[in-house]
Description:
This protein is an alpha/beta fold.
Amino acid sequence: MTILGLESSCDETSVSILRDGKILSNLISSQHFHKKYGGVVPELSSRAHLQIIAPLFKEALTVADIDKKEIDLIAATAGPGLVGALLVGLNFGKALAYSLDKPFVAVNHIEGHIYSGFLMDEKPEFPYLALAVSGGHTLLLLIEDDLNITKLGSTIDDAAGEAFDKVAKMIGLGYPGGPKVEEYSERGDRSAIKFPVAKLKTEYDFSFSGLKTAVLRYIQKEYPNIENIQEADKSDIAASFQDAVVRALRKNVEKAINNFEVKSISLVGGVAANKAIGNMFSELSKKYNKKLIIPDTEFCGDNAAMIAYRGGKLFENNIISDLTANTYPALPKNVFKSL
């Protein structure tokens, strides 16, 4: 089966073609111009998707060396994400499905990330734990098979990636903040400042709002004039903040490994590219003898290959969308089973 995947949930336009699980093409066009605004501007993002999606689709066909008539299934991200951006990819996919008379599947963006490990040569084994960490979400999930996903925990406030971006802004590192914080952390002392890890009543939930506030209070106290902060101090703040995030994530993941019988653990989402978080997962993998799957960097961020893969699995399980499928900006409450 040849599957076309389309992804346009935020500031990456991506088109991918998979044939029998093999990636024939996976093209990603990133909107770097948002940097000057300090964050993604939704209207500008939508316009950029409109301009690039058709030519990117043609290029994906060329790279894959196939004709569009060879496509058997079309899968596109429906949400969560920026509604205007999502509409571009979703409607392009629906129009293409209609014109080619092919089945269409609307895919949940988070589910795409959860199953992105299956794009690797070494794949997860069911049941497995997945930690999905991105700018908009932090979710700990138990995946039993292609259709049974249980949400163990999620963030009750800021996502981990969002906290990275905000702390980067506090110390003047610019946008996007995640890679900058990681870069500065490598030069800093993670034990320089003991930032707190939130203690919650719920067993597997996360909270990063208090950590973000603790960083802000520290900066306000130690550097009333932010212009006086030295590069070495920025590095120590970044390293100490990142260490607190890693400790918060590890606490809940390790608890879940001890409480559930799983064969694999997987780290997915944009923040999965962070080396410190990846190293923490590697340590847990060795400690508990669990198979570890972290997608390549190309597949940690938003990409259409994961959407094509997930769309194919939904289709195999007779889940097909009609052409009235709509976008959704937030993660639906009932999309995953509750613990």
